[in-house]
Structures are given as structure tokens and as C-alpha cells.
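Training component of the fellowship. As part of building independent skills, the fellow (R.M.) carried out the full modelling exercise for a liganded target. The chosen ligand was flavin-adenine dinucleotide. The inputs are recorded below so that the supervisory panel can assess the work.
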Amino acid sequence: MADPRGFLKYHREGPTRRPVAERLQDWREVYLSFPHDKLRVQATRCMDCGIPFCHEGCPLGNLIPEWNDLVRRDRFAAASERLHATNNFPEFTGRLCPAPCEGSCVLGIGDDPVLIKQVELELADWTRGRGLEPVLASGVTGKSVAVVGSGPAGLACAQQLTRAGHHVVVYERAEHPGGLLRYGVPEFKLEKHVIDQRIEQMRAEGTEFRTAVAVGATPEGPVAGAAASGASVFSTAELRAGFDAVVLATGSTRPRDLPVAGRDLAGVHFAMEFLRGANLASEGTIARAPITAAGKRVVIIGGGDTGADCLGTVHRQGALEVHQLEILPEPPASRAEDNPWPTWPVILRSSAAHEEGGQRRYSLSTSALVADEHGAVRGLRAEEVAFVDEDGRRVLRKVEGRSLELDCDLVLLALGFLGPEHHGIVDELGCVRTERGNLAVDGQYMTSVPGVFACGDAARGQSLVVWAIAEGRSAAAGVDRYLARSSELPAPLAPNSVALT
Ligand SMILES: Cc1cc2nc3c(=O)[nH]c(=O)nc-3n(C[C@H](O)[C@H](O)[C@H](O)COP(=O)(O)OP(=O)(O)OC[C@H]3O[C@@H](n4cnc5c(N)ncnc54)[C@H](O)[C@@H]3O)c2cc1C
Ligand code: SF4
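Fellow's submitted model of the complex:
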């Protein structure tokens, strides 16, 4: 039973970031760990609501009031067990999740919400500090599953299926497993030894990893999850013949482009081309990042997570000056009237990277990139835009006479992703796609091809780590049911579940 007056006694107090001047000199994580006495105070603020809306906000259905109360009572081992009951990788979500649970916490109606994400992170790291013991299957089923893609969706699916007794092989075309966790998200948000420790646990449980192996034909053009140089190819036909079931967890890797004059100039890159190179250099796979911001004036187009990751990276590389442009207007500081609790708060969010420098500018649509005499970018033109009502719809339109020009030597396009690649394994298998180009799945996460399942960004479209893990767990239940006719694996989501909006 929680302390019913905890929230009256204590205020929300979050973790501390390392000083900006210090952290810009390295790639290590930004946040200092949170003392456990303070953590217990924060967990005490949880009221253990009869109807805990935090559960509704979390796609994994995390048992938040249960572990908050166990932490309050200093019962970390029991709390860790409850945490891992619904989440394979709380060390990833604890670091990366925007915490929709906090957006729907009941305490947030009239006060600051419970510090749920920090309790999750400290519990996850407390567990990691004691070693991640393998959880071994109680028996083997004799069935085999290939999981293509090793991002959070593929990893969660693989871990669940291995623990259910199936023989699982994960194919990954990149150098190391992890998907966007490894080659998108920079070290300063998630140090990669955290991923390695979980992969070691999975190996000890029996999951096999085959990295630098691309399944099916290689895609045309740049993609977010590029193959390792010298990756070998495993044909789709061999994959089908070798396994009882296949899971496509191949991500949403097609980047949205910017169709303006000057797009092809030297110095204009997709964010993931830039971040992947920076992460490969940071892990030591290559000597130096192929694209660097050192001594350059940088413009990042796109105000989301990917843009913020570019921002922190260019500062660590030694950029001279940075602008981050967003086409939408600046969000309000607190919830607008049409954005009530418990929906996701659409408010101005500043990540650690924003504290480190650079200028954020809103309501700007890039109209052209300007060349120097050598064919490299030297500037960017943008027009101010605003929402107007047209036939009952809100549309963005140019504001006449309001434009701006910025000098720059490096432009990074962080405009989001359009869905999974089609050329290659998806077309070779003949999987039907949704109108948006994602992989269509039924209620068990099976695609139109019997025995072929899909989960994560490949099925949902560009999303979040927490949704990827929840989809991986749910797809595992579908695969297990397909192979064994019934399943006791939990399925936190139906494929068409949506966030509280
Ligand atoms: C820069 C960036 C930062 C982000 N930051 C956050 C954040 O802070 N918080 C958050 O919640 N979300 C964040 N996201 C979103 C989050 O990373 C994704 O939603 C999540 O990783 C999706 O997981 P996934 O397993 O579906 O796919 P991915 O992580 O994309 O993994 C797919 C994997 O499949 C592999 N693959 C694809 N095709 C093949 C093939 N044919 N053969 C073999 N392997 C293949 C790819 O190489 C890749 O490793 C971020 C995204 C980006 C791009
Ligand atoms: S909604 Fe907030 S206060 Fe209520 S149980 Fe969840 S975390 Fe605790």
C-alpha cells in the first residue's frame, strides 16, 4: 500500500546533468545517477491510484504503482522483478523514453507527475549492476524462428521467443546488434555497453546473432539502417526454407527528403547518414566520422528527437554555429485547452542537447539551398509559414514577405521517416502493405504471408522505443501461438493500438 500523503510531503525533483562544458568534451551519458534515498522519496509521491492512468499511457502496461511502492519500501529486488515482468529492456526506455506514463499520471492533474522514468532507470541500472542473469527456457520446442533486424522490436521479440523454448536467430545487416539504439541514438544518450550487456544475456539464453548479414536484395539509395561495409547477403528463399517462422523487424528506414533546389549540393545529408558515421567512429569501428561538423556552420532541418541528436553530436564535433529549424509553430509551455490530461502533453520540450547551445527557430519552411562556386552548400533560404483555415482544414501557408537566409556549410535533414524499405525482403516475400507503406499485419502480427510476422517501426511506422518493445513482445506471442497453437506469452498491444491523444 502506497503512502497516501506522499505527494503532499514531497515535490518532484529530477536528476542532474553534468556541466555543459565538461560533457561537450566527451561522448559519455549526460545525466548523473540519482541517489537512492532521493529515489525512494520520489517513489513515495505515487498515490497507487485505484485506476492508475499511467498504465494506460504506457504501451507496455508497466506495473508502475507496484514498483513505485516496492522502491519506497527499499525492496529493490522485488521491484526489479515487477519491472522486468512487462519490459524486456527498461535500461533503454529508462534512458530514452519520452515517458507517456508521466503525461497521464493522475498526480499531473494538479501537481507535477511522479518521476516514473527515473525510478525505472535506477531500478534497471541497479539490476544491471548485479549482472543480468540469463532466464533459461524450461524446455525446447524444436521450432526455429528467424528475426530480421535487431532494433528494440527484434530484440524484444527474439528474447521472448527464446525464453519460450524456440531456436531464434537474429539477422542484422549492420556491424553490431541494436538498430537505431546503436547507430541512431548517440552515446551521450545511451552508452553502447548498455546494449552489449543485454546482448550478452540474450546470447547466454540461447539467441543466436548473425551480424553483417543482409537478408534479401540490398536497397537502393540511402537508408537509416545501412549495411556494414562488406556485409554478406542471405537470400530470402534460404531464410524461408531454413525456419518455421520469420519476423520482420526491419524498422522504418526510408528518410523523408527535402525536394528543394540545391538538395544535391555537397554538404547536404540525411541525419542518419551523419549520425551513423558519428556512432561508428565513437564505437571505434571507423577511425573518424565521414561527415563532420568541426569548424562548420550547421543547419539542422527538423525539430524532433533526431534533430536534437544531431544537435548534441555537432556540438561535440566542434561546430561553429548551429541553427535547428522546425516548420511547426513553437509549442506552448504548458498544455493547451484542447490537450487535456491524460493525453500526451504537446508542450515545448528541451532536451539536454538544447541546453548545450544552438538556436531553435520555428515556423520556417526551407525553400532553397544555395551553392558556392565549388558546388557545395553555402546558405539556406527559408520562408515563414503559419496555419490558416481553408475549407475547415488547418493548413500551413507561406507568410508573404517574411523569409530569411542563413549561411551554412553543413545541412542535416532530420525530417522523419516514410516507412520500411520495399525493395528487397518485403517485395521478395510478397508482403501486403498498408496505405502508408508499412507492413500490414493481422491481430496476431502476421503479415499477408503465412508464417511471416512483422513488428516495430516496420509495421507501425516511425515511432518510439517503448512501442517497438511492446510490439516485439506482442508479435512474439503471435509467433508462439502460430508455432505451438497456444501461448502464455504476454501481448501488451493489438497492432492497431494508438497512443492516448
Ligand atoms: C536518431 C534517432 C533518435 C531516436 N531517439 C529516440 C529516443 O530518444 N526515444 C525513443 O523512444 N525513440 C527514439 N527514436 C525512435 C526509435 O529509435 C525507433 O522507434 C526504434 O528504434 C524502432 O525499433 P525497430 O526495432 O522497429 O527498428 P530499428 O531500430 O530501426 O531496427 C531495424 C534494424 O533492422 C535492420 N535491417 C533492416 N533491413 C534488414 C535486412 N534486410 N537484413 C538485415 N537487417 C536489416 C536494420 O539495420 C536495423 O538495425 C529515435 C530514432 C532516430 C532515428
Ligand atoms: S497515475 Fe501516477 S500517482 Fe497514480 S499510480 Fe500511476 S504513477 Fe502513481
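The panel noted the following from the submitted structure. The longest helix spans residues 465-484. Residues 144-254+417-484 form a domain with the FAD/NAD(P)-binding domain fold (CATH 3.50.50.60).
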